[in-house]
Design a protein that fits this description.
The complex is a heterodimer. Chain A is mainly alpha-helical. Chain A has eleven helices and seven strands. Chain A is 57% helix and 6% strand. Chain B has three domains: 107 residues, Butyryl-Coa Dehydrogenase, subunit A, domain 1, CATH 1.10.540; 107 residues, Butyryl-CoA Dehydrogenase, subunit A, domain 2, CATH 2.40.110; 132 residues, Butyryl-CoA Dehydrogenase, subunit A, domain 3 (Up-down Bundle), CATH 1.20.140.10. The two termini of chain B are 39 Å apart. Classes of the chains: A mainly alpha, B alpha+beta. The complex binds flavin-adenine dinucleotide.
Amino acid sequence: MRFRPTDDQRALRDGVRALLARRFDREALRAAVDRPGRLDRALWRELGAAGFFALRLPEADGGVGLGLPEAVLAFEEAGRALLPGPLLATHLAAGRVPGAAEGETVVAAVDGGGLVEWLAQADVVSGDADGAVPLNSVDPLTPLHTVPARGAADPTAVLLTAAEQLGTATRACELAVQHARAREQFGRPIGAFQAVKHLCADLLVRVETARAAVYAAAVTADPADIAAARLLADEAAVRGARDCLQVHGGMGFTWEADVHLLLKRAWVRTRRAGGGTESEELLARDLLSGTGGQRSCLR
Amino acid sequence: MDLSDSPEDAEFRARLREWLAKALPALPPKPSPDDWPGRRAYDLGWQRTLYEAGYADVHWEASPGVRLIFLEETEKAGAPYVGAGFVGLLHAGPTIAAEGTAEQRARWLPPVLRGEEVWCQGFSEPDAGSDLAALRTRARRDGDDYVVSGSKIWTSHAEVADWCELLVRTDPRAPKHRGITWLAMPMDAPGVTVRPLRTLAGSAEFAEVFLDEVRVPVANRVGAENDGWRVTMVTLSFERGTAFVGEVVACRRVLGELAVRARRDGRWDDPVLRRRLGRLNAEFRALWRLTQWNVSEAEAARGGVPGVGGSVFKLRYSQARQELYDTAAEVLGDAALDLDRPWVRDRLSSLSYTIAAGTSQIQRDIVAERILGLPKGR
Ligand SMILES: Cc1cc2nc3c(=O)[nH]c(=O)nc-3n(C[C@H](O)[C@H](O)[C@H](O)COP(=O)(O)OP(=O)(O)OC[C@H]3O[C@@H](n4cnc5c(N)ncnc54)[C@H](O)[C@@H]3O)c2cc1C
């Protein structure tokens, strides 16, 4: 057992992080907020060239030939940067939809739960989006449509969503800690006050617990592990963003601070694939399957 | 990222399983929870069995990964946990192994491994709990002895212990962390009085220990005089590492039993309860993965002394354990008020998890200050 990223996996993560830091820094994030519903096609192609969409495609098919753990690390970075766009749908379409792997074609997908992200901006829609109704999306960086719920959740989509949530939770923790160190009240950094300190500690505990669950699910690809990863990561992202907001005080309630972007994106992702109830039910059934708890322990 | 056993680990696991299948049926019946001498004999007997089979030093010598397999497999097979051997095997022993002289190691370690001697931990005092460094039990040098007076509290297994790892103040004028010394005190020394305390579960698993001019040889000091705080930190980081591996495995089993029980009683149709159980499944799966993560980190960091990741784990685990037994009560309904029912006593004892071995508030301070780098002070 060596349950930590290998050197290659670290290098891949650092590579994605560096690319996003260069091409999608805070300024770019805020610019995207100011131009809602517009996708940066040049960035999309750059992601394609870097292998973001073709990551799990076999090398014989022109892909990078890596697996779920690598994809999870890449999606975590995307979640950390709050990178907008139908990343998941395009990634899942690579190899099936011409141009998706390269980032030439933007693909939107009808999610099992009935939500469609970025429908109007996509070149190709996978699934039946007939009669889709637009929502006035709460997240300025995710245009949304709904269709009647159809189809089952794809476990890979659930796992990669959990990876994005993990990244967003990590960002929330980082922002909260930065602010707690910098902002002073009563003559000292607010991070010296225990009430604030403990909010930050809980943020980290949720992030690290979710990280272990998400990475393990990427290794085992076990549906129950994936369901667990989803629940933990949703919690880490949503509660993390809420606590981060609290640590920011009045600033946290502004449009100008990034905190609301974290929370709103986390909310959108909790609704993917029909929401967490599916996962809770799957995990409940797993308890009765007898082998449930023990099987994956043995790995 | 790899969760599978290496060939050597797989072989260790297979050999251990095979041995457990043979050794466990030969175990004597479990003593009743209130029979402390009986429990001491039972726990030591098991340690002796491990010793004879060559597994006694798995907590010290083996890599963290092998220790994880050992704890996982013994729990799954239903083998006893360290019990009364806890402090000797997981606190005092590792401390002496790391900080003791050759003579001290030769005197104290073999009896722990052979299951002959029980240790207890005399750290907390009535006025020094979370603020452990405020401890006041005095030790005054007199020739080749320290003369110790004061009192300790919440000392688990004190009634059945042979030795106590004792923290005393040797320099009352020094800053509070710098005047502390670590001593091994024989529990049968004149001047030691043990008064059992009754826990809220009705049992007597911890005690007050009064020390009145107890003579402890200077040769029983581990580490330098006034260097006891550093020595203690070695010990505490051990406790917060792999100490709960077996319990996580056990919690997952209990969760499965709860589900079966809920279905049998017709409670399974209640979606609120069912999803609560599903969530707990997620929680304990994640805690198991977090354990594997921490162990892998410890292996990578060599040394094998668990780091602050243990505090992250303990915070989450202690809360999850309480939630597990609160959910058990939900499944049991009125039977949750009957002490003779399974899980009811476990529910009571789960209440200590957010207090013992550093309260959750103190753990949050540790996480915030040592991992996140937030300023010290409140
Ligand atoms: C079952 C059990 C077994 C034990 N076994 C042993 C043993 O074998 N040997 C031994 O030495 N000790 C043992 N202990 C003692 C244990 O380590 C202490 O109870 C623990 O460290 C807390 O100390 P305290 O009880 O004095 O509580 P206090 O320190 O008085 O704490 C009371 C409350 O105040 C909070 N608090 C205190 N300081 C702060 C702060 N700075 N910031 C925020 N909140 C704070 C605490 O979190 C807690 O909620 C055991 C305890 C239990 C419950």
